[in-house]
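Page 47, continued from p. 46.
Same chain as before, 248 aa.
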Amino acid sequence: MTKTSTCIYHFLVLSWYTFLNYYISQEGKDEVKPKIFANGARWKYMTLLNLLKSKTAGFGIYQPGSFRKLLQTIFYGVTCLDDVLKRIKGRKDIKFLTAFRDLLFTTLAFPVSTFVFLAFWILFLYNRDLIYPKVLDTVIPVWLNHAMHTLIFPITLAEVVLGPHSYPSKKTGLTLLTAASITYISRILWLYFETGTWVYPVFAKLSPVGLAAFFSLSHIFIASIYLLGEKLNHWKWGDMRQPQKKRK
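Result:
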């Protein structure tokens, strides 16, 4: 039975991400800010993949389709539903939902959130103009910046501590993560070819070979985070890998 305190925590986190989504959607209606963000650059940032319906302002299009109802909001929505149904029906009757929750967290929510936190602050501390130019401080509140780039990590890490998550085989997990990475990179390139503007300033400073190296190293980094998440889960909860189907 899921603890009441854990259920309340999941609901509060879902409410937090829902509020952020609403706040950002209202900010996107501001007619002054699009003049500051050429081609709606603010709405193309990867961190908004951790919210919901991240619009590319000025073009009226959305972030990559599979992330339209974005990562953290979906995950905590599914988690809250899982919490409620476990209390009503019991654990055995909702195995599919629990498995989907675990797959979502292990292969996407944890790796992406941790990657966003680490990559953003490493680049920010090295040279903020590469990732978050100072002009953004005039239009994005400090608390919102930390909501998108800082709080996502402790919230995600808390999820590791609060309950176990069954990991798929490494082949399945890394394949899904690779597919998500390719989808996002394809979206970045498509936006550049459509608008002539890179979603992050750092990309404009790289040659084609540099971009290929950057994307490759980023994928290696996020794959390493996936493996770290599996190790943390094993350390806290023991072996929680999903059982393999026996071949006939």
